[in-house]
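User: What would this chain look like folded?
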Amino acid sequence: MAEVRKIKALLYTEKAGRLEDNVCPPYDIISGEERERLIKRSPYNLVNLELPVDTFPDSCDRYDEAGKKLSEWIQTGILGRDSKEGMFVYREKFSVKGREYTVTGLICLVKLYDFSEKIVLPHEETLSKAKTDRFNLMNATYCNFSSVYSLYLDPAGTIKRVLLKAVESKPEKEFTDEEGVTHLLWKIEDENELDTLIRAFSDKQLFIADGHHRYETALNFKKHLENQKKLSGTTADCMMMTLVDMDDEGLVIFPTHRLVTGLDIDKQELLEKISGYFDIQEYPDVSKAGEILEKFRNKHVFAMYDGGEGFTLLSAKPQVDDMVFESRSKAYSSLDVTVLHSLILENGLGIDKQNMANQINLRYTRSSEEAVERVRKGECSLAFIINPTQINEIKDVSLAGDKMPQKSTYFYPKLKTGLVMNQLNQRG
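Assistant: Here's the prediction, encoded as structure tokens.
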């Protein structure tokens, strides 16, 4: 099963300044405005490398520039390799709706496996455009700047015991970000503890929670180096991961709401089309949509908003539970997002899968308030507010060898990029 390895990490040095000024969110959630703000905070912010932009119009130099800047930062001592191999314990402490959470992960290298081997399992579809972007960056920098977020099962608690022992000491790094999330980092160097972790993972499957594009890119880059006979002597047969126990009580998944744009929609006509599958009920206050949805977590329910003060609750009729979509698995067919996409977006509105993948008439947001506001402003025709995907659903879809529609999960909080990095052309 999974082979985890120690990492001789690339890290920010004291010369770079405060660590909190140099780390950044994952590349795919950084807006242009946030990118500028991060760079103003520190000229060494990792967004320079993780999300490079072209220096000149019509230029394609951004990947090469990222590679040059990485070399420069290493040569000038902004970044430096750790003195000894090990693994890192990464904790995030945060609050959601007044409740306090702590989630604990292990940062290490994981041997790359094709999905067909069923050792590392995906749960979401990916886009080729994003994979091309990540491949070009990896090819220019030979570095993992961010880790893939993956889950595992540890019923015996062996891994948990090692991690809890590690966090008894003072963390090597600790800071609180602008969202109020506290990030803490410890390093495990004890060979006995490391061997225990390596053995404990050797019979486990890993479930990708976040980072599908990066993992698939790593697979493609490994094959690229193999074809060129350049893989030997690198760590490109591995991917840096943050591994979290699937039963960790700190795991939080936010819903990703759907926004329909660019279509003239007759609400009554839509409701008539889908009335065979859904019970339809009007509610007076859209600000209560999340509370209403929470009460029906055991059903397929969606809050449809088309403007005004209220919303329409769509509750799937019993026969929907027995439906199988696209000859896919029962786990896939049982997802809220599958029911929404298949019966409402496709059958009701005519938004097919290619349209969804290219985001022609479909947008996403994790904020229900933003979804409502964009409809009120006329930027979108409809919003569908949904419940979050559950952890057990991710496991079931993955084990079924299936994949969820894109944007089915949003793990919160996101892992910081730049805490720990891995140079692919430096082994040991």
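DSSP finds 14 helices and 21 strands in the chain. If you want, I can go into more detail on any region.
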